[in-house]
């Protein structure tokens, strides 16, 4: 019999902070049960000596999301911190798009990341720009990996991080477990992809035999009972690599409305309250937003079925979700659970979407769309000098 592991099956967080799947759990046990661990006392660094002098290290590969780290990345770092031995450092290697070019110089934006609180002993920033190919980035990461010789490397199993991890695994080569949903008792359990004839034992492997773990969500809890050292280091910028047989035509901005909703960073979503669809689409284009819709707006023929968001539509994880005239029925909210910032426009302050949103504008949606579009058009028409007024830094304010 093939036993499949459902990453959403009942699980608890062990006192060590790592996720343990509860086999044979009852319905009542569904959801993460957090073990009662008291962190009332002041936290101390886990590592007692500078990271340079540590006996070894665990390496985490993560990409920042506009200068910050999302929950998935934080969980991968926390897992490394929990797995590290007392004399091993947790080193996080992060491609850094806005990095200054001078190696060794502190980056003011990276300073906003509280590395110590995340459990990071040393944050290594790798300056990158858009022209750097994935191959050149993988070269640079592989070179750093060889210098550091980590006992174990971890990365979130998604997008750029999963890609970088897999490239590293192939280059070295590394023994890699992808889709890891649990680390317990010296073994890792991976999301079973359900291949025909695979035995249940195929879904777990000994941690000792692995070099690289690509982690699913919620493998570790991010509240740690200790801190990292929080050291920072800017690495030299990687050299670009010429790729034989390929010509780099540069970066071409895509149209936000053609991006798959699941991958969209910013979504403008319409509900039954949106009656002027033409105006709505103009606004989406001006904002550079992908277009989503509620089921009522789709059933009504105003939007395509592929644009429906919710339990019977797409599940999205945009950084920004602007809900225009959407009530926020439970089926719709299911589809936006993973969205980071939700804003709403609604005339009804008691709508469930208002509870979900961080900010709601209580206004007629058509009127607001007209105003917003006019503002954007005015901004665009303004001479560049007016819009390039420097924004005072928080420090200076
Ligand atoms: C099995 C099942 C599966 C479902 N799956 C989905 C799904 O995947 N996705 C989904 O979205 N729904 C789904 N639904 C439907 C869901 O229950 C709701 O009916 C639907 O989400 C409501 O859409 P709405 O909020 O756009 O419309 P409404 O419920 O009509 O709400 C419109 C909202 O807009 C506001 N409004 C109206 N006019 C204006 C205005 N001029 N200015 C500002 N605000 C205004 C109103 O105050 C209201 O809050 C499903 C239902 C079932 C039973």
TrEMBL record:
Residues 261-337 form the Electron transfer flavoprotein alpha subunit C-terminal domain. GO terms for biological process: fatty acid beta-oxidation using acyl-CoA dehydrogenase. Keywords: Electron transport, Plasmid, Transport. Residues 60-186 form the Electron transfer flavoprotein alpha/beta-subunit N-terminal domain. Coiled coil: none annotated. GO terms for molecular function: electron transfer activity; flavin adenine dinucleotide binding. Belongs to the ETF alpha-subunit/FixB family. This is Electron transfer flavoprotein alpha subunit. It comes from Sphaerotilus sulfidivorans.
